[in-house]
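Final report, Chapter 2: Outcomes

The project's central promise was a pipeline that accepts a single protein chain and returns its three-dimensional structure in a standardized token representation, suitable for archiving and comparison. That pipeline is now operational. To close this chapter, we reproduce one record exactly as it appears in the project archive, with the input sequence first and the structure output second.
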Amino acid sequence: MEQNFDVADLVNQIAEQQKRMHELLGDRRFDLMSLSQSMRLRRKLESGRFDRLQHICTAFNLRHAVPVNPDRHYTQLGTDFLEGDLDALPDNCTYLLLNNDIGKHLNRFRALMAARPNCLFVVWDWDSQHWLRMSCNLAAYSDFYAPATSENLYTLSNFTPHIVGPIAIGVNQWSRSFIVEHMPLLLDERSNDAFGPHVRYPDFERRNRAIATINQKLPGIRFADDSYKKKSDLDNLRDWARYKTHWIIPVLGGVPIRVFNCILTGGVALLPSFARHMPESLAFDDEPLYYDVLDLVEPEKLQALAVARFDQEGSVGVVRRVGKALASQHIDTRCEQLLSSVESAIQRLAGRATPSERYPMADAFPGRR
């Protein structure tokens, strides 16, 4: 197919939008906001009560998280905790919330922060690559903000000086004990068909075209709804364990949770080629395969290659992938990574950090302090 249009028009439109964005980010109000946030947080940290984060309040999306650190205790809030009596919620603790825990209740979240000056509020944003309106608000109103991807990192840094991460998404559908208990299911025979139901989002038409195009050759790559949320944990695990290969078409950049679900359930993930170069993909080593635009039109060859890779290692490969994901990509480990990063940030802000914590690259250049 020959290109019969002038790409300069697209370049100019994108460049103009970026120029306008940079003009907005140069507004003096960002300076005032940053200073105000820094002074407010430093006052909160002066007591030293948050030097070690021990009592952690989480919501429904982190219901399967179990503390890795024995000094921490997790309390799960109700599903609609922001809709109820805010005065009844815990005090003198750290709130670790996902963007989806807050969602449409942003004003209630702000009210909770105002009513709980003795609490620390950490927001982990799993949609920072595409839900910019929500992400900017969460960055502006939390004590610490952790995006899950590197995309939009600079833009978001203008709304808070207290970014930790990025902290990649972790598998939150199943507890680690649940996976271990159902390991025989993951070792059962699997289909050679491709698996990839995706929710259709009207705002991302290029992604929708990619799914529709692959579907013509691989019917398992298709549009779906959110019905999986109504299934039991076991039924969802069966769906993932039924297939050797999983095609993942993300919304914009970042690495979606589907990738981690795929690897933790022992499958072979297929990702868009640009994801190979994203820092979030470093954790996967050479596990995934990557597709380009021609593979969307003729996906059969890459699908066969993915099946062959699965078959080459068989059950040994399944056990290896599951074990690696349980150790480093499950929500238990990710929560500890995030909380440890917040503790390190608190030490730096309080001036109690060691030189290596204050300047993480210092040890790479001995003698140059």
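Archive annotation: Residues 357-369 have pLDDT under 50 and may be disordered.
This record, like all others produced under the grant, will remain available to the consortium after the project formally closes.
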